[in-house]
Amino acid sequence: MRSTTPASERPASPAPAPVTAVLPGPAPAVVTAMLADIDPARLRADVDRLAGFGTRHTLSDTTSETRGIGAARRWLLAELQRAAASSGRTGELAMTAELEVHGVAPDGKRIDRAVEVVNVIAVLPGSMPEARRRRYYVLGHYDSRASDVMDATIDAPGADDDGSGTALVLELARVMATRSFDATLVFMATAGEEQGLVGARRHAEAAKAAGLEIAGVLSNDIVGDPSDPRGGSHRGEIRLFSEGVPATADPAAWQLARQTGAFADAPSRQLARVVAEVAALHELPVRPRLVFRPDRFLRGGDHTAFNEQGFAAVRFTEVAEDYDRQHQDVRAEAGRSYGDLPEHVDAAYLADVARLDAAALAHLANAPSAPGDPQLMATALTGDTTLRWTASPEPDVAGYEVLRRATSAATWEHAQDVGQVTEATLPLSKDDWLFAVRAYDRDGYRSPAAFPRVARE
Ligand SMILES: [Zn+2]
């Protein structure tokens, strides 16, 4: 017999892991000022506008000016172009906005005819030449679906999934375009997510082939509703999913992870930790609840398309999803209402999620790159730990820190300044700690942790 616990007796989901404050204060004032510019009223209007296209199904109408995915992507492009025009940026630092068109043939799955899958992308070039190659993405998918994933005509308002993430991308483009960051920021609204991550996968594959340096991707998918269908609210939190071992790990990498206990140190996991550290530093009203797995059961998302190509990518999703509202025809049935309607998106909460993304992106894009080729020296039986790395190329690098945590800890616990060096020995046993190294610059911005490989000579 099957045992089911009544909802009222279920324990709450686990509390977020405590984040030890390994980012020293004070929080940079320029970032705090930027966060104040994020406007819940614009986010409200954008979610309503996106839902107002009726459906944004990837196979829906592209000629109407008012309904379907074509109208939606032209509106998104116009909004990004407006942000670029009003940014005051010119020349090689100007923000560009464009449609990225991918011709896709029927795939025998969720694409049943030839279709153009079109991502809408704005690129804000980094202001530091040595950092400009490095790209940080914020993305949401602007396509939507109803109960039948192949129904391209029925209403699919997609307000939360993923009008919320799309509106967040637009708002960050507006607010960040007027400011300068060392590395390049990419604001992307993808299509084809519901048909199998098509737009994100095409973009990630092309980026890999072109040798683009994608250093981090923040995917926002279903981020506008803090309410819990079982009752209550999770107003102060958002889940943040990340892979602990890279999707691209080969058997040797898995073997090394088994041997060293390093199952939670993929670049994507370090990216998730940066988000948590930045949220704690800025005392943000929405903090990430780190979930140490790539995604939810039975669901996928665009970050996975980047993970598959070896890029660090993580996913934000609200704490308690309401399955009556996702992937459902808008209807009432047996006294229950279904559908992903704008009234279920809380703009004030969405604005606070946007602030979390914006703060993390600002820190990442202003910080130096993570130190190159980090190595943990395993050459002799000693009670010390020696780490080596190569210098980060940015001219404002002021030094390096060795991070460490207990092998059983979820987040970095200690940061030790070792100065402007590329090798450090600590009087601590490598058997008992997990170590990493990060770079910091003159303004106090910290790179993500670079987790070392084991070197035997
Ligand atoms: Zn989605």
TrEMBL record:
<dbReference type="InterPro" id="IPR007484">
    <property type="entry name" value="Peptidase_M28"/>
</dbReference>
<protein>
    <submittedName>
        <fullName>M28 family metallopeptidase</fullName>
    </submittedName>
</protein>
<dbReference type="InterPro" id="IPR036116">
    <property type="entry name" value="FN3_sf"/>
</dbReference>
<dbReference type="InterPro" id="IPR013783">
    <property type="entry name" value="Ig-like_fold"/>
</dbReference>
<keyword id="KW-0645">Protease</keyword>
<feature type="domain" description="Fibronectin type-III">
    <location>
        <begin position="370"/>
        <end position="457"/>
    </location>
</feature>
<dbReference type="InterPro" id="IPR003961">
    <property type="entry name" value="FN3_dom"/>
</dbReference>
<keyword id="KW-0482">Metalloprotease</keyword>
<keyword id="KW-0378">Hydrolase</keyword>
<feature type="region of interest" description="Disordered">
    <location>
        <begin position="1"/>
        <end position="20"/>
    </location>
</feature>
<dbReference type="GO" id="GO:0008235">
    <property type="term" value="F:metalloexopeptidase activity"/>
</dbReference>
<dbReference type="InterPro" id="IPR045175">
    <property type="entry name" value="M28_fam"/>
</dbReference>
<dbReference type="GO" id="GO:0005576">
    <property type="term" value="C:extracellular region"/>
</dbReference>
<dbReference type="GO" id="GO:0006508">
    <property type="term" value="P:proteolysis"/>
</dbReference>
<keyword id="KW-0964">Secreted</keyword>
<dbReference type="Pfam" id="PF04389">
    <property type="entry name" value="Peptidase_M28"/>
</dbReference>
